[in-house]
Amino acid sequence: CAKCQLPSTNCCSKCRRVYYCSREHQKADWTNHKTLCGPPFKIKESEAEGRYLVASRLIKAGEVILQELPLVVGPKLNTLPLCLGCYKSITDTYRCSRCNWPLCSAACEESALHKNGECRMIDPTLMTNHLSQGAINSQVFQCITPLRYLTLPDSDRERLDELVSHLEQRRGMDIYRLVEQNISSFLRYRLLLTQYDSESIQRVCGILETNCFEIRIQGRVSVRGLYPTASLMNHDCVANTRHVFDPADFRIRILATKDIPAGDKISATYTRSLWNTLDRRLHLKSTKHFWCQCSRCADPRELGTLLSAVKCTGCGGAVLSQNPLYQMSNWECSDCGSVQKVEQVKRVHDSARMELKQIAQLARNRPELLEDFIRKYSGAIHPDSCHVIEAKYALVQLYGNTPQLLYHDLSEELIERKLDYCRQLLKLADVIEPGLSQLRGHLLFELQSVTEHKANRA
């Protein structure tokens, strides 16, 4: 209780951040609480950025900025076959008694999202033709999330229709043709839902792909959710928030990873923080339809981390982009000034990425492959290269946590190596994911764990 400090489970119904043991104590504390009650953000709009969130007051690190239920949840564009009630992986053993769609059980027929969405729209005789016994085509799941959007109540549709779709940019792209072939045509001509025109379906798919969050919950197939307010957060490659999902109802919780002063933009990261600038910007352009111009992307040295650097073959210095905000810019050695075409740099990065991807499949049983990769590419590319960093992070997760690599199996040398990797990566995380971020939290946990085991050996 904010007034008397006694334990309490009753929170302020408006902000849900402060607790009280009684109605009387809530009223007594209103003078103090009213300045903090309500959302700590406001929505702004500009021609360049559209709508976005800014802090309306100082938001402290760790504070919950926003909690929100999704208006739409469903399969991703590329998905494994999954139950549309609980989102667990399925085989074709049970069918919905109403629409004939594959599900886990009768209980999942009553899932509100399924029952009120696709189930009431689909003719079961048509589904029999498209979902033959024993052969579930994962492509048919691509239509489910757009269909759930299209069947929302008008009030919810109106809120989501305000979100950016990038429809014009998508025309002529492969994704536009894929949606037309696999989703629009399927809904209109195979399921006979001709009340939805192709343009509306394309716009809905654009809104979903631009604004959805990926929801990963253990034991279930990854799905996507659309949150009307959370999706307004701007992207930044060094974000000031992180988000978590409640597995019970997919509620998103946005938390500040560091103090956010009043007036500052509230940002999330929609790409991988350990990737280099070329890859991050290309990923954002292909999935979110914009070229990132944040301070990290604009800095050839990536805020001093050198994650994008490759080694100069002439003098051994760091070769960096002359203009990181232009994808085709030449690259230049910071020591000798020699210039390389971006195609040369891409070939180096692509080669390392492919090799690391192949090694990752075997590393659980052969971690020495990752150690060899680190030694090879620390010299061949750069010791701070993103590929070397990813290999070190993989080893931090393997050492002490997998069979045959538990702490009692590790030599003193490997214990020290994990300690060293944790410290190196924490210095990096302090720059690219500062504060109370997931990356720093994971690394601190692993550092504490290996430090404890080292102390117990002494």
UniProtKB/TrEMBL annotation:
The keyword Kinase does not apply. One of its GO terms (molecular function) is S-adenosylmethionine-dependent methyltransferase activity. Residues 1-37 form the MYND-type domain. Residues 39-271 form the SET domain. GO terms for cellular component: nucleus. Coiled coil: none annotated. The keyword Lipoprotein does not apply. Keywords: Metal-binding, Zinc, Zinc-finger. Residues 87-118 form the 4Fe-4S ferredoxin-type domain. This is MYND-type domain-containing protein.
